[in-house]
Amino acid sequence: MSMHPDTDMNPGDEAEPGTPGAGEDVCEACAGSGKQSDGKPCPNCGGSGHVMRGIGGG
Q: Any residues with CB less than 8 A from the CB of 57 and at least 6 apart, and which?
């Protein structure tokens, strides 16, 4: 995984958007709502409710 400061990755992302073998998944920290229980944006997904996950391939 590349850790460039100019990427738009969130802490819950395993890969950058557009990476072969990766796809969007529901954030497990907020169950896809994009918010924490206190109403603030989820820090794991950046408030989107989705994270990028490795789904296979090479």
A: 20, 21
What is the C-alpha to C-alpha distance for residues 34 and 2, in angstroms, rounded to an integer? Answer: 24
Residue 9 sits at the vertex; the CA angle it makes with 56 and 3, to the nearest 5 degrees, is 85
The residue type of 38 is: D
Q: 42: which DSSP letter?
A: P
CA-nearest of 49, 21, 23, 46 to 34 is 49
Structure tokens at 36: 């924490």
pLDDT in tens, the chain (58 residues): 444 455 689 999 999 988 899 999 999 999 999 999 999 999 999 999 999 999 876 5
